[in-house]
Amino acid sequence: MTRFIDLTLNGISTGTVYAAVALALVLIWRSTRIVNFAQGGMLMFTTFIASAVINSGASYWVGFVVALLSGLVLGALVERLLIRRVAGAPPLNAVIVTLGLLILLEAVAGMIWGNTPRSFPPAFSIRGYDVGGTRVLFAPNDTFIVLVVIGVAALLGALFRGTALGLRMRASAFAPEVARLLGVRVGRMLTVGWALAALVGSLAGVLVAPSVFVGPNQFDPILVFGFTAAVLGGLDSPYGAAVGGVILGLALSYVSGYEGASLVTLAALVILLAVLMVRPGGLFSTTRERRV
Amino acid sequence: MSATGEQAQTGVLEVDGLCTDYGPVRAVADVTLSVEPGRVTAVLGANGAGKTTLLRTISCLVPAREGRVRLGERELLGSAVEDVVRRGVAHVPEGRGVIGELTTEENLRLGGLWRGAPAEDLDEVYELLPALRERRRQPASSLSGGERQMLSIGRALVARPSVLLLDEPSLGLAPLISARIMELVRRLANERQLAVLLVEQNARSALAIADRGVVLNLGRVVADADASELADDEDMRQAYLGF
What we know:
Chain A has 292 residues and is an all-alpha fold.
């Protein structure tokens, strides 16, 4: 029973990180119908920047804020300089652009910071809580991860539901032409959407970095898990992304704990395939598939 | 003055020698017309006559090949689509353009965001269209066709336009609802001194409320006359108006 509780707590912690990556993917999918395969590369890059800042002697929190801000800027630049140029082109063009960007970012990161993975400090202790004399697999840093992801998700929800900016962004995502006719500067909204998505991705990067280390390719599995979580919850649903991330985190934690860590990636792919076959729209998507 | 510093224009909407191409096809050919405040001009014609393209060109959704579109002293062509509404032109597109994922109230708010419209402006729309007040919290996708049309017109009004471009507002509506919408359009022109450019396939109901009628065929103006004259012209009715 203790093992089950440990695995469950661990699954919730890692699941919230997958949820953050999934949220970043969903934010972009909803507004531009693009799966941002560069998301892993972008969060890797901003985590490297945070690592460099911390290694230069600044505190963890300075690195944390720098990562988020650089994510914001990187997201805006990617939309302005790359994605806008393929807007209106066949969807495959955007896929190729994001894949190309992923390769570019990984190559540039390797050139600047080297290919050897480096450690990254956690925000808080990673020593598990002592519950009734037993040390559980859930530490203060995990509490921080869960709370910060929930907090960011709540802030995004409030932004989208409760502000004029959020209303403009939703209108731009759902009906760009109508939004333009109503005076909404849709291009600007897309830039803001990409910037926010990259910020959430950067957050996931700094949160997961203490467990996976920082290297040009270290975050590739995180992108795969984030994508699986997004598909599981429904690519159109931010709520689904959050729940999908936690479900995936739990599932992979149980697989890792009971069947072995080597099966985790395979299990994620099996879940992805199963969702695509049984419920392609995901658990919470409002978009209905149709037969043609 | 709007929140963005743009000056909304009032006055006559003048379209002069407007041409629009889709590749090698000329969809709008040398169209000239004008709409004055408080007047309704109906643009009529069969499918493919260029009616929708004409409105989309005026709104700058489609680039014009030649010609001019002026509102008061100001040229509209070449503006960004987002700026056309700031200059006083509200376009209610074909299919109503209601955003189904947003609530009725969110759709209405969206219409006035660019000018920071106060909540009282929504109340004005609710007074004019009480059915929308009852549905204010509902997703717009749950509204009936008539309610959606009212919502799209109400949303355009929140922008406080001087020109209203309406694309097939009666499309797919029951005759009774369609008549109510047409009545509303006439009322808006009279009471708010709106210049209304009304694109319709249902020529009979459009001419019943319009002051002037313009008939398009293959993108060209084949008739431009008082609405009552057009409605009485047997040849024109048989050749182009279908009633």
